[in-house]
Design brief:
Mean pLDDT: 78
Shape: elongated
Order of helices and strands: HEEEEHEEEHEEHEEEHEEEEEHEEEH
Number of strands: 20
Radius of gyration: 39 Å
Strand content: 15-25%
CATH class of the largest domain: Alpha Beta
Low-confidence stretches: none
Number of helices: 7
CATH architecture of the largest domain: Roll
Distance between the termini: 168 Å
Largest sheet: 5 strands, mixed
Structural class: alpha+beta
Helix content: 25-40%
Number of domains: 3
Length: 403
């Protein structure tokens, strides 16, 4: 009887022990599965984060004390306790961060640094946490408007780390009638910022190429023709009038208006003064870059050594391939003289190599020369005779009527 009782107790203990081992193993298996699932979720989260960050092109790390938070900014909030909890939250259109179990926080127009501080303070009121992490993981999109002298004005969707130059590029670039020394940025709070965009173009001055805010309007004004101007001619994308600064050097002027392009291989430019003078500047000589431009100058570029440039009273001014032994009248013939052009003998040839000016259609031209066809200053005799005939006809008609 005792043996049978001992045997039953032993079997029962073995059964209980086996059950406990099985339950423990099952519990460990479920825990491993949970940890594995969490690890997979973390990997997926960081991959998503990496994708979001790669969508933006950053100049440098965002300064939390300068970045202004607004609707659409995307935050990741991690609460570290016995169980780690991560919350990905978007700032609402009303500028609120609505955090489950913590509450709502108004963050619109606050700095990133201030926003982080408020979130941590609110979380600590609800939880006794060892650590709280608040990170901005995706920038919001904002609308900015570009008007005035750009090729394609309009409204563009950008981010708060985009600058004025990014918007001008998106708007197709500046018109050659744009006055870049006084670009205006109109803010949503009715304030205005004036910038000299040319300082960024020439020197890379980022203070004159600021970051933008939602609702900003960039106004690119037209050139004020009552101010100092230089007329630029030649084989370039946008010939026309360009603004001139006081005592501005040729090199600064060319760089500021982005008139030098490597593909053109510009070596020499011609400056025609308003008083009739003429200067040929060799850009390969550094000291010539210090030539000061004057109001009313006409700048002709490029003077390519393989071309002849024809200007003045012609139908098709511009560059023509240089052909050895041709005369000035041959190039003028290709360009086509206008009705108000002076005679062939009045044609001026400015030799690039020497700077000497010759006259006459039979003058031989050389590579890089400029052929200028002046306007006719007086009417031909035939035109006077034609006009006199018309007047005589009118007089005869009046006399006939009176009879």
């Amino acid at each position: 009887m005792k043996r049978r009782l001992c045997f039953s107790v032993t079997v029962m203990l073995l059964f209980i022990f086996t059950g406990l081992l099985f339950a423990q193993k099952k519990e460990e298996t479920e825990k491993e599965k949970a940890e594995k699932l969490k690890l997979q979720q973390d990997v997926l989260h960081y991959k998503e984060l990496e994708t979001k960050l790669l969508e933006e092109a950053f100049e440098q790390a965002i300064d939390p004390e300068k970045y202004i938070v607004g609707p659409g900014d995307y935050f990741s909030i991690t609460l570290f306790d016995n169980i780690q909890e991560r919350l990905d939250i978007l700032v609402t259109p009303e500028g609120m961060l609505i955090i489950p179990k913590i509450g709502s926080i108004k963050v619109d127009k606050l700095t990133l640094d201030r926003t982080k501080s408020l979130v941590k303070k609110a979380a600590l009121k609800k939880y006794k946490l060892s650590k709280i992490s608040v990170s901005l993981i995706k920038l919001r999109k904002i609308r900015v408007h570009v008007t005035g002298k750009v090729l394609t004005p309009g409204t563009f969707v950008v981010t708060p780390i985009d600058r004025v130059s990014d918007l001008i590029s998106r708007a197709g670039g500046l018109s050659h009638f744009a006055y870049v020394q006084d670009l205006i940025i109109k803010h949503i709070n009715s304030k205005e910022t004036h910038i000299d965009y040319s300082l960024f173009q020439v020197n890379g001055d980022l203070s004159q190429n600021p970051l933008l805010c939602g609702g900003d309007i960039i106004v690119v004004p037209t050139i004020d023709y009552s101010k100092m101007l230089v007329k630029v001619e030649g084989n370039l994308r946008s010939p026309g009038f360009y603004s001139l600064k006081n005592n501005e050097y040729l090199s600064d002027f060319l760089n500021r208006h982005n008139l030098l392009r490597n593909s053109q291989q510009i070596k020499k430019v011609n400056i025609k003064r308003a008083n009739g003078g003429n200067i040929i500047v060799d850009l390969t000589e550094s000291e010539k870059h210090q030539t000061i431009l004057k109001n009313g100058d006409i700048l002709i570029l490029p003077i390519d050594v393989q071309y002849i440039y024809v200007s003045g009273a012609v139908q098709k001014p511009g560059q023509y391939p240089y052909i050895m032994n041709l005369q000035a009248k041959d190039y003028v013939g290709r360009a086509g003289m206008t009705d108000n052009a002076a005679s062939i003998n009045s044609i001026k040839i400015r030799h690039a190599a020497t700077g000497i000016v010759e006259k006459g259609g039979n003058t031989r031209v050389f590579a890089g020369d400029i052929v200028e066809v002046p306007l006719r200053t007086s009417k031909r005799l035939s035109e006077y005779l034609q006009l006199a005939g018309q007047i005589a006809t009118i007089i005869i008609a009046i006399v006939a009527i009176q009879k």
